[in-house]
Amino acid sequence: MDNIVRASGLSKHYGRFQALKDLSIDIPAGRIVGLIGPNGAGKTTLLKALLGLTRFRGELEVLGLNPSSQRDELMRQVCFIADVAVLPRWARVKQIIDLTERLHPGFSRDRCMKFLKNTRVTPTHKIKALSKGMVVQLHLALVMAIEARLLVLDEPTLGLDILFRKRFYSNLLNEYFDQQRTILITTHQVEEVEHILTDLIFIRDGEIVLNSSMEDIHERYVEVMVRADRAEQLRQWQPIHERVLFGRHIFLFDQPDIGQLSALGEIHKPSIADLFVALMGDENEQSASLKEHAA
Amino acid sequence: MNGIATMTTLLRRELWESPIAFKWTPLILGGLCIVLVLMGLAMGAQVDYQLAFTYDIVRQFSEQSLAERRAIITPALYGIVALFNAILFIIIVFYLAGSLYDDRKDRSILFWKSLPVSDTSTVLSKLLTAMILAPLLFLIGILLTQIGILMIASVYALGAGINPFSAFWQPAGLPMMWLTLAASYLVQALWLAPVYAWLLFCSSWAPRLPILVAIGIPVLAGLGQNFYTMFTGFRFPDFNIWVLTFGRIGQGVLPVSFNFNTGGQDGQAEFQALDASGVPISLELSDLWARLVSINLWIGVGVAVVLLAGAIWFRRRATDN
Q1: Across chain B, what does the average pLDDT equal?
Q2: Mutation choice for A interface testing from B103, B110, B112 by most A CBs within 10 A
Q3: pLDDT band at residue B265, thresholds of 50, 70 and 90?
Q4: Which of A41, A76, A265, B221 could form a disulfide with B116 if both were Cys (CB 3.0 to 4.6 A apart)?
Q5: In what side-by-side order are the strands of the sheet with A241-245?
Q6: pLDDT digits (tens, 9 = 90+) for B21-52
Q7: Which residues on A lie below 8 Å from B5 (Cβ)?
């Protein structure tokens, strides 16, 4: 499939702070990509660059268009939700729906109303009067009702209750996603998106730390849980991370010999959260804890 | 065709965002005019409780020639225009100063930029709101108010046993006045285009308080120029920032445009011509035409185009912070 996003040598400075450092990335079509990173890692800056909302240096193409000069054309095929409730507070719900319908050729009012049916948002509500969660629900309904080739969600479920979050992700997967579409999600609640992602990108300090499909990740990274007396032996094999849970030691390995490991302990797939901590966790803390264990 | 539909929607959006400024203000102003007239009449009725005196005035009025009646009615009707126009200008100034700033402040720019609408269309929609949509709504307010006042006058005419049509409606010549007003609003919009574009330009980049930025820059620049002239004696012959700015704002074609003394420039001459026509405050299509083809107006339009390009340039780079 074609690449939806092609970026190479992407850089962005805010004064002296370098938000993106010569970042290169390709995102193919038909994927659900999780963009995960700590606060200030450059996630939002990267998304803004993709959406034509910020200037940058380097080359960037989204759906074959240059986001900074062709934003309006790009927005016919791209939808996004920023990480905050940004619907205009003066508007009524029906006005926002009307405006989107008139201004966006790919918008379907029926679909939007269908998504809103499960919420307490009504057309006569003023945005001002909605709770933060309801504004997000409305915005998600608007965006899901647009036929887009790329959907960008920056912390989409912030402030929503568990029920709605579950329903949102299941809608996203079952009703919205198909092979023609690509979804790019950033979130801190990685457990929630873990099962729907096809690809995972870790970003830290403006650089890509990991960019891989979930299958590859599951092939490459293995966790093994062993009793304390075997921990020393495993440390010799250069685990990338170690943690202790109920007296058991859990080691994370990059491309280990599965046969050897399974003889020593229980093997399973690492969760994204564990992988995140292993690859992105505070380096000082990690080396300190390794030393502590060694002592 | 698609562009027109988009622009219509964007204009509707502006109306939805500021209903008080654009819809309610003209209605309230009109209501205020009518109430004032009614209060005046009620006070008259206190003194003249059988209205004999009042009816007498009405009768005397109706016996005057058409030209004389016109000379009384026209300024009265234009007085309403002056009131509306002064308020309209203030509203437009505040509207434009906030128009490209408020959504940056409350971050809703992120929503607007998620729609397939170019930044050029967005900026133009704000300008068209100031140049056409808002004047149109105020014009409707003026029409309704004028009709209302003439209807009150008609009741008195009927009371006095006079044909209200020939006494009031005919000399008022409303259709012609409305046509002239509509045309004058368009000329006025072109005349003020550089002011509007300046406000949009400031609104597009000002980090905060765009209205103060927009007013402060010309005030300070003029202050600098005048001090410089004072200390060095150097003077541009026909270029004084303050005179230029106030002249531009004050010498529009609509009533309430105040006569700012610019030392014998075109503006004053035109105003004297208006005064000499025998009707103190009125508008003639020929004056509008003269203004429309004046070089001064088109220099302003040229400046406006440059400032608009600047506003669009900044808008393309604008995000939520």
Answers
A1: 87
A2: B110
A3: very low
A4: A76
A5: A241-245, A248-254, A221-226, A266-268
A6: 999 999 999 999 999 999 999 998 888 888 88
A7: 102
Where do the domains of chain A lie? 3-205, 217-294
What is the spatial distance between Cα B60 and Cα A267, in angstroms, rounded to a whole number?
108
Q: Where are the alpha helices (DSSP H) in chain B?
A: 2-17, 19, 25-47, 52-63, 66-99, 102-105, 109-112, 119-128, 134-159, 164, 170-172, 174-205, 210-232, 241-250, 266-276, 285-292, 295-317
What the block records as the tokens of B198 is 């300046």
ipTM of predicted assembly, 2 dp? 0.87
User: How many whole angstroms separate alpha carbon A264 and alpha carbon A234?
Assistant: 9
Distance CA(B113)–CA(A48), nearest Å, equals 11
Residue with tokens 């609408």: B117
| Three-state secondary structure of A59-98 | EEEECCECCCCCHHHHCCCEEEECCCCCCCCCCEHHHHHH
**Where do the H-state alpha helices sit in A107-161?**
109-117, 132-144
CB-nearest partner of B319 from A48, A76, A87:
A48
d(CA B162, CA B157): 5
From the list B107, B116, B118, which residue is nearest A86 (CB)? B107
Q: What's the confidence (pLDDT) of residue A40? A: 83
Give the HSE-up count for residue B229: Cα atoms under 13 Å, Cβ half-sphere. 12
> Which residue is associated with the tokens 């004058």?
B184
Contact A257, A267 (CB under 8 A): no
Beta-sheet strands, E only, within chain A? 3-14, 17-28, 32-36, 57-62, 78-81, 150-154, 182-186, 199-204, 207-213, 221-226, 241-245, 248-254, 266-268
Q: The tokens of B80 are what?
A: 């309403």
B9 lies within 8 A of chain A by CB: yes
Residue B213's pLDDT band (cuts 50, 70, 90): very high
Which of B110, B118, B121 lies closest to A86 in CB terms? B110
Name the fold adopted by A3-205.
Answer: Rossmann fold (3.40.50)
Compute the distance between CA of residue A223 and CA of residue B243 in angstroms, rounded to an integer. 78
Asked if B22 and B90 count as a contact pair (C-beta separation under 8 A), the reply is: no
Domain A217-294 - what CATH class?
A: alpha beta
Q: What is the pLDDT of residue B260?
A: 36
H helices, E strands: number in chain A: 12, 13
What angle, rounded to 10 degrees, do the helices at A132-144 and A109-117 form? 140
- Distance from C-alpha of A265 to C-alpha of B12, rounded to nearest angstrom: 67
Q: Using a CB-CB distance cutoff of 8 angstroms, which residues of chain A are in contact with residue B117? A: 72, 75, 103
